[in-house]
Design goal:
- By secondary structure, the protein is an alpha/beta fold.
- It has three domains: 92-395, Beta Barrel (Catalase HpII,  Chain A, domain 1), CATH 2.40.180.10; 467-554, Catalase, four-helical domain (Hemocyanin, N-terminal domain, Up-down Bundle); 559-710, Rossmann fold, CATH 3.40.50.
- Helices cover 28% and strands 15% of the residues.
- The protein has 20 helices and 18 strands.
- Helix 16 crosses helix 17.
- The longest helix is centred in the middle third of the chain and has 17 residues, at 367-383.
- It is globular, with a radius of gyration of 28 Å.
- The protein binds CIS-heme D hydroxychlorin gamma-spirolactone (HDD).
- Residues 86-89, 92, 126, 128, 145, 147, 160-162, 167, 172, 175, 235-236, 317, 351-352, 368, 371-372, 375-376, 379 line the site of CIS-heme D hydroxychlorin gamma-spirolactone (HDD).
C-alpha cells in the first residue's frame, strides 16, 4: 500500500510545521489575524481611548451621559456578542491541519486534492457532541461529529461525518422528530447532554430503524478517550468520479493512526464534574505540545455494477458495508497540528455543509443525504445572519471565486463593474462559466438515469432494521457486551414511563440478541421474550454474522505515545526514581506527571526536591491513563494516610487502569485494598523491573481481564 513518505514532523514538508506560512489557508487567514501587542486601545472607528475604566458622567457621582460614544459602543457590541448556537452539534472544538493523498487516490477521483502525493490541502476539522448545548460536558454518551473542511484548489469540500458509520433515521424528513426527541425535554429542559430520558427512548422504540445506531451509542464508542482515538465516517454512500467520468460508489472512513479506545462510563460521568472540557483540553494541549492528531482517509469503493450485490441497500444510512465485504483502502493522511487563534472567529463561525463538494465527488440518492443538502445552508442563514457567511475568513475557499450574487447583510466584497448578471456584454461576459473537463473543470453532476413515479414511500430494500445490529452485537468482545448491557440498563433506569422500558426490552432488544434483552430485562424486573419478535422483513438477513473491525479491540493503540501517566509522590519520595520514570516515559512518547498532596515542591529522601505538576484532586485518576506509585517509605506512608491518595488507586483500579507500585510504594496498594494478583498491578523495586510490563499493559489501553473484579471496588 503506498504510504506517505513522511513519518515524523521533523522529516516532513513545511505543512508539518504548524508555524509555517506555506499553507494557503493560513496565508489567507493571516490577513485577518490581529495582534494587539504594543498597540493603542481604540474604538472600532479608530479613536484612541484615554480612560477605559470610567464612563462619562455629570460630576464624579453623577449620571452617565448619553454622549459617551465610547461607553455606548463598548456595551452595544457586548450586548450583541452571542449568535444562536448550532441546533445540533453545538458543543465542539476544532483544529487546523493538512491532508495529503497517497498515490492510489487519483485512480478513483479526478478531484485535485487526490492527484499529487506531494501536494497538501489545508483542512479545518471540528469535533462535536450532538445533543448538548455549547457549554455542555465533553464526555457525555453521544455520537461525536467529525466534520472536515478541505480547502482544495477547486473549492471547499466538506466531509461532514460522525464517529459512527450509521445514522438513527433513514429519511431526512424524520430529522426534526429525532432531534426533538433526543434534545432536553421541552417542558423543563432536562437532561443536558444525555439520551437517558423518556422522549428519546419513546421515539427510538417506536422507530425500529434507529436500533442499529442506538446500539452503537450504547457502546463505549459514545465517549472516546481522546478525539485522536476516534474513527470517523462519512456515513452515506457518496460517489467518486474519475478522469474518464466513470462513477463509483464510495463510503469514506477516517482511521485514527493512534488506534481506537474509549473511556469507561463511570469515568466519563465523573469527568463531567472533574474536567468538563476533557476532550477539548487534551486536543488543545497535545497540539500545543507538538503531538499532532493523525488519521488516514480511507475509502470503500463499490463499482456501479455491484450496487445491488449486498444484503442491504447502499442508499440506506442505517447500514454499513462490513470491511470484509469491501476492503477499506487508505488514500491519504490528515494531520491536525495547529490550534485556532480565536474560538469564535474560527470554530464557532465555521459553516459545514455536505453539499460543498468539488469535481470528482458526487452525491448518491440516500434520502438522508438528500435532505441534508437543503438543511445546512438553511441553518447558516439564521446562525450566521444571512447569505454572506462564505466571506467569513474561516469559510472562504483558498481559490478565487466570482459570481453575480450580490448584497445582503455585512457584505465585505466590493464588486466592481456594472454587470451583475450573466450573460453580459458590458463586463466582457465575465465571470464566465467553465466547461466541465477531466481536471480543473466546471462541476458537472454525474449523469444518472432516473425513471420513476413521484411517490412518498420507503423502499422495501430499507425494511431490514436488525441484521446489522446483530452483526455489531456479535462482533463485540465480552467486556464490550457487558458495557452495552450496563448502558441499556442505566439509560432505561432514567425512563419514568414503564411502558417505554417494556417496549425497548420486549419489542426491540430481542431482535438484536435475546441474551442482551434478557440481561437488561433482569436489571428492570421485566421478562424478555426468548426469541426475536419483529416481522421477518425487519429482522432482515445478513450473510455475515461477525465483523472484527466493529470492536474497539480491533485497533488498540499498541504503544503508549501521548499517554498521560500519574506518578504519585509525597514528601520522602525517591526523587531519582521519579526522574528515571519520567525519562523512560518520555522516550516512549508518554508524559509522566508528579501528582502530590499539594502544589508545594515534593521533598525527596536525599534532600532534593521535585516539582508537583498537580494535586491529587486537581488531576484525578479519571484524567490520566495509568498510575505509578513511586518508591520512598515516607512518601508511601503519607499517601496511604490520605483519603485522596487511597482513592486515587481505587478509582484507577475500578477503571481498569494499569497500576505500578515501586519499592515502598507497594504499601499504598495494601492501604487502598488493591488486589495484587492482577495482571495490571505491576510491582518491583526498580524502574527497570517493571517498565517493559508496564508498556505492554498500557499498550492495550486497559486491563480488560479485571472487568468483573473491578465492579467490586467501591470507588
Ligand atoms: Fe447534521 C450539523 C453530521 C444528519 C442537519 N451534522 C452537523 C454537524 C455534523 C453533522 C458533524 C456539525 C458540523 C459542525 O461541526 O459545524 N448530520 C451529520 C451526520 C448525519 C447528519 C453524519 C447523518 C449521516 N444533519 C443530518 C440531517 C439533517 C442535519 C438528516 C437535517 C435534515 N446537521 C444539521 C444542521 C446542522 C448539522 C441542523 C446544525 C449546525 C449546522 O448544521 O451547521 O443543519
Amino acid at each position: 500500500m503506498p504510504r506517505n513518505p513522511y513519518t515524523t514532523p521533523n522529516e516532513g514538508p513545511p505543512e508539518d510545521n504548524p508555524s509555517s506560512d506555506k499553507n494557503k489557508k493560513h496565508e489567507k487567514l493571516d490577513r485577518y489575524r490581529s495582534n494587539a501587542d504594543g498597540k493603542d486601545l481604540r474604538t472600532n472607528h479608530g479613536v484612541r481611548i484615554a480612560d477605559n475604566h470610567n464612563s462619562l458622567k455629570t460630576g464624579e457621582r453623577g449620571a452617565t451621559l448619553m454622549e459617551d460614544f465610547i461607553f455606548r459602543e463598548k456595551i452595544n457590541h457586548f450586548d450583541n456578542e452571542r449568535i444562536p448556537e448550532r441546533i445540533v452539534h453545538a458543543r465542539g472544538s476544532a483544529a487546523h491541519g493538512y491532508f495529503r493523498p497517497y498515490e492510489n487516490a487519483a485512480r478513483y477521483s479526478k478531484a485535485a486534492l487526490f492527484q499529487d502525493p506531494k501536494q497538501s490541502t489545508p483542512v479545518f476539522t471540528r469535533f462535536s457532541t450532538v445533543q448538548g448545548s455549547r457549554g455542555s460536558n465533553d464526555t457525555v454518551r453521544d455520537v461525536r461529529g467529525f466534520a472536515t473542511k478541505f480547502y482544495t484548489s477547486e473549492g471547499n469540500w466538506d466531509l461532514v461525518g460522525n464517529n459512527m458509520p450509521v445514522f438513527f433515521i433513514q429519511d431526512a424528513i424524520k430529522f426534526p422528530d429525532f432531534v426533538h426527541a433526543v434534545k432536553p425535554e421541552p417542558h423543563n429542559e432536562i437532561p443536558q447532554g444525555q439520551s437517558a430520558h423518556d422522549t428519546f427512548w419513546d421515539f427510538v422504540s417506536l422507530m425500529p430503524e434507529a436500533t442499529h445506531t442506538v446500539l452503537w451509542t450504547m457502546s463505549d464508542r459514545a465517549f472516546p478517550r481522546h478525539f485522536r482515538y476516534m474513527e470517523g465516517f462519512g456515513v452515506h454512500t457518496f460517489r467518486l468520479i474519475d478522469r474518464l467520468e466513470a462513477s463509483r460508489f464510495v463510503k469514506f472512513h477516517w482511521k485514527p493512526v493512534a488506534g481506537t479506545c474509549s473511556l469507561i462510563w463511570d469515568e466519563a460521568q465523573k469527568l463531567w464534574g472533574r474536567d468538563p472540557d476533557f476532550n477539548r483540553r487534551e486536543m488543545w494541549s497535545d497540539i500545543e505540545n507538538g503531538d499532532a492528531l493523525e488519521w488516514e482517509l480511507c475509502v470503500q469503493v463499490v463499482e456501479e455494477k455491484d450496487e445491488h450485490n449486498f444484503d442491504f441497500d447502499l442508499l440506506d444510512p442505517t447500514k454499513l458495508i462490513p470491511e470484509e465485504q469491501v476492503p477499506v483502502e487508505p488514500i491519504g493522511r490528515m494531520v491536525l497540528n495547529r490550534n485556532p487563534d480565536n474560538f469564535f472567529a474560527e470554530t464557532e463561525q465555521v459553516a459545514f455543509n455536505p453539499g460543498h463538494i468539488v469535481p470528482g465527488i458526487d452525491f448518491s440518492n440516500d434520502p438522508l443525504l438528500q435532505g441534508r443538502l437543503f438543511s445546512y445552508l438553511d441553518t447558516q442563514m439564521l446562525r450566521l445572519h444571512g447569505p454572506n457567511f462564505h466571506e467569513i475568513p474561516i469559510n472562504q475557499p483558498v481559490c478565487p471565486f466570482h459570481n453575480n450574487q450580490r448584497d445582503s447583510a455585512h457584505r465585505q466584497t466590493i464588486n466592481t463593474g456594472q454587470a451583475s448578471y450573466e450573460p453580459n456584454s458590458i463586463d466582457g461576459g465575465y465571470p464566465a462559466q467553465t466547461p466541465s473537463a477531466p481536471a480543473q473543470g466546471g462541476f458537472e453532476t454525474v449523469q444518472e438515469r432516473v425513471d420513476g413515479s413521484k411517490i412518498r414511500a420507503r423502499s422495501a430494500s430499507f425494511a431490514d432494521h436488525y441484521s446489522q445490529a446483530r452483526l455489531f452485537w456479535n462482533s463485540q468482545s465480552d467486556v464490550e457486551k457487558e458495557h452495552i448491557i450496563a448502558a441499556y440498563t442505566f439509560e432505561l433506569s432514567k425512563v419514568a414511563r414503564p411502558y417505554i422500558r417494556e417496549r425497548v426490552i420486549q419489542r426491540i432488544l430481542p431482535n438484536i440478541s435475546v441474551e442482551l434483552a434478557q440481561a437488561v430485562g433482569r436489571g428492570h424486573g421485566i421478562e424478555a421474550p426468548s426469541e426475536p419478535v419483529a416481522p421477518a422483513a425487519e429482522l432482515g438477513y445478513s450473510s455475515q454474522v461477525e465483523s472484527a473491525p466493529l470492536s474497539l479491540m480491533h485497533r488498540l493503540p499498541g504503544n503508549i505515545r501521548t499517554r498521560k501517566v500519574a506518578i504519585l509522590a509525597a514528601d520522602g519520595v525517591d526523587v531519582a526514581q521519579v526522574t528515571e520514570l519520567r525519562r523512560k516515559l518520555s522516550e516512549e512518547g508518554a508524559t509522566g506527571m508528579v501528582i502530590a498532596p499539594s502544589m508545594a515542591p515534593v521533598a525527596g529522601t536525599g534532600g532534593d526536591n521535585v516539582d508537583s505538576d498537580a494535586m491529587l484532586n486537581g488531576l484525578p485518576s479519571v484524567a490520566v491513563d495509568a498510575v505509578i506509585v513511586a518508591g520512598g517509605a515516607d512518601s508511601a506512608r503519607r499517601l496511604s494516610e490520605s483519603g485522596l491518595g487511597r482513592y486515587y488507586l481505587q478509582e484507577a483500579y475500578k477503571h481498569l487502569k494499569v497500576i505500578v507500585a515501586l519499592a515502598d510504594g507497594q504499601q499504598l496498594l495494601d492501604a487502598a485494598g488493591i488486589p495484587k494478583d492482577d495482571e495490571g498491578v505491576i510491582m518491583g523495586d526498580q524502574v527497570d523491573d517493571v517498565f517493559p510490563a508496564f508498556v505492554k499493559a498500557l499498550s492495550n489501553h486497559r486491563v480488560w481481564s479485571r472487568n468483573n473484579r473491578a465492579n467490586a471496588m467501591p470507588a
